[in-house]
Amino acid sequence: MLRSATRKIGSVYDRALAPLGINIAQYSLLRSVERLQPVSLTELARTAELDRSTIGRNVRVLERLGLVALERGEDDHREAAVNLTARGAETLDVAGPLWEDCQRSIETQLGPVRVTALQEILRVI
Amino acid sequence: MLRSATRKIGSVYDRALAPLGINIAQYSLLRSVERLQPVSLTELARTAELDRSTIGRNVRVLERLGLVALERGEDDHREAAVNLTARGAETLDVAGPLWEDCQRSIETQLGPVRVTALQEILRVI
DNA sequence: CTCCAACACGGGTATATACACCTTCCATGG
DNA sequence: CCATGGAAGGTGTATATACCCGTGTTGGAG
Lengths: 125, 125
Known about the structure:
The structure is a homodimer. The first copy, chain A, is mainly α. Helices cover 70% and strands 8% of the residues of chain A. The first copy, chain A, contains six helices and two strands; from the N terminus they run H-H-H-H-E-E-H-H. In chain A, strands 1-2 form a two-stranded antiparallel ribbon. In chain A, helix 1 crosses helix 5, helix 2 (24-36) packs across helix 5 and helix 3 crosses helix 4 (52-64). The longest helix of chain A is centred in the last third of the chain and has 25 residues, at 86-110. The first copy, chain A, is globular and about 50 Å long. The structure holds a DNA duplex.
C-alpha cells in the first residue's frame, strides 16, 4: 500500500511537471544538484540514498535534456563535477511554484493533522 | 521524501524475501493472483492500480520463475487467465511469515502511534 | 619511489513502471 | 449477417532503480 500510494502521489507531481518535460525524480535530482553544485556522482548518490549507478544514469538524462553539465573534477580526475546549466536553473525557477501548488493541493486533501503525522513519520524512517 | 522512504522500506522487504528469489513487487502481485485467480491482466492492473502493460510484463517474470501459469480465457479468447502454480502457492506459504516478521519489525521501529497514523493516511490516499 | 588498496565511474543485466500504438477478438446495431 | 467500435493484450520506447564487475585514478604504506 505504501508503494501504491507513493506511485499515485508521484503521478500527481509528474503531471504537474509534465509541461516542463521533467518528472518527479528528475526534479528532485535537479534540486540536489542546485544545492550541492559542483557535486560528484558519489556525493549525489549518498545524499539521495540512491545507488551510484542509478545517479549516473539519471544525471546523464538530465545532461541530455541540457539541464546539467558534467565536467571532470579538477583535482581528482576520477570525480565528475555536476553543475546546473542556465536552462536547468530556469527550469527549477518555473518548476518550483508548480511543485508547491501540487504540494498544497495534496496537503489540503489530506488535512493538516495527517500532514503533520506524515512529516513526522518520514522524519523517523 | 516519500519516495525515498518507500524505497528504503521496500529494500527491507526485498532483503527479507531475497532467499525466495522474489522482491516486494512480485510478492504483492503474487498475492493478488492468489486472491483473484483465475484473473485477467486487466483485472490485476485495475486492482493494483498499475498500467496493464506493466502487469503484463511483471506477470511474465513470475511465469518465467514458475510461480504462475497463463492460459487463454475459455469464453473470451482475448483474456488471459492467470493462476498460481503449486510452486507459487508454496512460495507464498514461505513468504508470508517472512513478510509478517518484516512488517512487525518496521512497526516496532515506528511505534504504535505512527503506525496507526500511517495506516489512516494510506487509507485516505 | 613503487606498488597496492581504496575509491570514482562506467557498462552489463534485470526488474518496475508508464505511455503510445498495434493487433486481435467480441458484441451489437443496422 | 456483417461492419464497426470498444475491449484485452502485446510491443516499442523511455526512465528509475539496483547489483555486479571492470577500468582507471589516487594516495598512502613500505
